[in-house]
Each structure stands twice: as structure tokens, then as C-alpha cells.
Amino acid sequence: MTVEDADGRRYLDCLSGAGTLALGHNHPVVLEAIRKVIDSGAPLHASGLATPVKDAFTTELFRTLPSGLADRARVRFCGPDGTDAVATALRLVRAATGRAGVLAFTGAHHALTTGFPDVARAAPSGAQITLLPYPQDYRCPFGIGGERGAELAARWAESVLDGPASGVPLPAGMIVEPVQGDGGVLPAPDAWLRRLRRLTADRSVPLIADETLTGVGRTGAFWAVEHSGITPDVMVLSAAIGGSLPLTVVVHRDDLGVCASDTGTGTFPGNQLAMAAGAATLGHVRENGLAEHAATLGARMLGRLRALAGELACVGEVRGRGLMIGVEMVDPEDGDDDTGRAPAGPGAAVPPDGTRGRRPRPAAPELAVAVQRECLRRGLIVDLGGPCASVVRLLPPLTTIDEQADAVLDRLADALQAVARVPFTHRRAERPRRAPRRPADRAERAG
């Protein structure tokens, strides 16, 4: 997980190529797989043709899929980024159902930029895209959090599907991230995902799981949907699936048929180097139990960060699953309520009963930027996310060992404490103006 800059300074990389480097930089099994294809003289690009490299990748992929899907799945290779894969998945369900509308969720990776580009690009003229609330604790859309907040989010989805007053016709599909990454590292409640699965199955609405950022062991299970035990009808796979090289795949139930047209699946669906690197990565993660390692190490890192957050008023919440971790930065000087009482601490934002007695504090993107800079000074690379770019994100490789994790946590703790020592009022004047990312920017991150 170590990289070196032009001046010879070394950094611990917790960005991991926006999650594409499941095994870290230049892992031997990935390099060997790439060299083998190059040395063989085989074509480097085979478009939609069958090749031994593609067969090996597909075989390894099927070994990892949820059993309910692997038994009856088809695989479609798409263009080099997640945008192509999402567009392909939506064309698939539209062709299968004869319907056009899509249900998606606020804050999603495929929904954050203006105009919902990944989904809207594949939409027929006049197709309706409806955004539903995504449950979370700290900034619950209903101001409740916990199980009650998730229940309300599920009821909202049900009312949109069934309520004649919603004005939303039965959709072609529903697309959801099991953990929102760019949305601020928000793990979906397992019970809520199971409820969505029942709602969609009962109404013959295909459920699409967007595993672009969560797949290949990142969250502590090989695929994040496995935490809840659901089997989606379609899975969108990208990021780590290509072993650090551009590759996207759509896996779907065989009874959904095939896309009516190849239009828009991209120019590079047959990248043999990416398939070789991807097969090597999938096999190494599976054979070495790296998903289980991510679950164990991630829990330890989350525990230590939550303990630290209890001492820092500038941290609103620490959350995550496996090695997908987020630290939300907030205004430490904002009063909790009309009386100006200070919050009881980040860990007390949502009590065990799921009710919220205190409102969340305002997001502080300027503090997140400051933490990122302090981390860089200490030799640690982190990412920022969330709708306000106020969440410090950690995506360490699945191969991270305990000593490296401790070094990451030590440097991050130093950075957080350094930022906390500076009065927040001194930073308000430097509040960054964050322009919305262009669709091309987000597509690049998804690849």
C-alpha cells in the first residue's frame, strides 16, 4: 500500500486508485497475470469474441457470485467505466420488462452529479427517474435514524410503488448501492435491503445492486449484498473487478434475456489484460480469505477511530463496513439545539433505541480538506466524499496488515488532532467552493 513521489518520499495509500487496487499497487499475482498474456502473443483486445483469458475470468467470477445468482446467471462485458455498466444494466431491465422508469436513491454513486448522468444517459425520452430516501443514522432524512428511520425509508419506497397518488408508474427496475461510497460511506441496513428485495420481487421489478465500489471483498464479504443475504437480479461490477485495469461487468439472471442493442456498451469490452488481472485478483482474494480479513481489520480500525472521535467535537460520525471507512467532519462550534447545548459526543448522535434527541451538526468540508492536507504531510493519502465533501474516506488495500493499519490510524489521529487544535472560526473564511463533478469526472472514478 506504499507509493513514492518524485522526491522519494513514501506514502501509505488509503485511496487505492478509488478502490480499484484491491491487492494494492503492483501485486505480484497481478503483474504475473499481465506478463503472461503479453508474453503469450495473444491479442490484447478481442471485443466480444471468446478467448481463453475471458473464459478464465468468467470461471473465476462465477466461483465468487452469490449462489442464487451464480446458478442462473449471464455475464455481459461493458466499456471501461461504471457509467457504461449502469447504462447496460438499465437497458437490460427496460428491454426485459417493457417499462422505462427507474427507482434510485439520494446520494448514490450513480446519482450525485446534476442530471443523474449514469442513469439518465440510458433513459428513453420521457422516462421517469425517481429518487427515494436512503436510510442513515447521523443525517437521517426523517430525523429519526436507527431501525425506525430505515422502516420509514422502506415504507416510502412501498408507497411510491403502490400508491396511486405517487404518480410513479411501475418501474423497469430499482438500483441501489449496498454501501454508498461517494455518498459518504453509508452502509445500508441489512433489514432494509431485505425489505427492498421483497418489495421488488413481489412486484416483478428487477433489483440492480451497484457493487462498483463495494465488490471483491471490500466490505468484509465478497459482495456487499451478501451481508443482508439478498440475491439481486442484476449486479453492476467495476473498480476492483479488473485488478487495477479498466473493466466493467454486468451479471444478470438468465431469464432477463439480453440487451436489445449493443449500442453504448463502450469501445473496450474485450480488454484481455484487464480480464487476466481481474481473474488473478478474484482468485487471490477468494483463496486467501481477504474478504474475511477485511471484516476483521475493518472492525478494529472502526473501533479505534470511534474511540478517538469521542474525544473530538469536529468529528460527527465514524462509519463503514470492512475496509470502506468514513469519518464525517462537522462544525465543532455549532450548538446542538436552540439552547446552544453542545452535542453529547459523536457516538451519542443516535441512541440504541433509534430515536434522535439531537440534530446533527453542519457538515464542515473545510475541515475535511484540512484533514486531508495534514494526512498528506504525514505521509498518508486519503479521499474525500459525501454530498458536501465533508467525509474523509479510507479505502486501504485488502492486503493491509496490522502494522500498516496501525500506522494509518496513527497518522490519521495526528491529522485530526492537529485540525481540532485550530479554532473553526479561522477556517470559515477559507470554506472551499466545491463545484459539482462533471459526469466524466465521476465516470473516471468509477472505472
From TrEMBL:
Cofactor: pyridoxal 5'-phosphate
Biased amino acid composition, Low complexity: 341-354
GO molecular function terms noted in the UniProt entry: diaminobutyrate-2-oxoglutarate transaminase activity; pyridoxal phosphate binding
E.C. number: 2.6.1.76
Annotated stretches, region: Disordered: 330-364, 427-447
SUPFAM superfamilies named among the record's database cross-references: PLP-dependent transferases (SSF53383)
Gene3D superfamilies, alphabetized: Aspartate Aminotransferase, domain 1 (3.90.1150.10), Type I PLP-dependent aspartate aminotransferase-like (Major domain) (3.40.640.10)
Compositional bias (Basic and acidic residues): 438-447
Domain of life: Bacteria
InterPro entries on file: Aminotrans_3, Dat, PyrdxlP-dep_Trfase, PyrdxlP-dep_Trfase_major, PyrdxlP-dep_Trfase_small
Keyword annotations: Aminotransferase, Pyridoxal phosphate, Transferase
Top EC class, one word: transferase
Compositional bias annotation for Basic residues: 427-437
Pathway stated in the Swiss-Prot or TrEMBL entry: Amine and polyamine biosynthesis; ectoine biosynthesis; L-ectoine from L-aspartate 4-semialdehyde: step 1/3
CDD domains, A to Z: OAT_like
Family to which the UniProt record says this protein belongs: Belongs to the class-III pyridoxal-phosphate-dependent aminotransferase family.
UniProt name for this protein: Diaminobutyrate--2-oxoglutarate transaminase
Organism the protein comes from: Streptomyces griseomycini
Taxonomic lineage from the root: Bacteria, Bacillati, Actinomycetota, Actinomycetes, Kitasatosporales
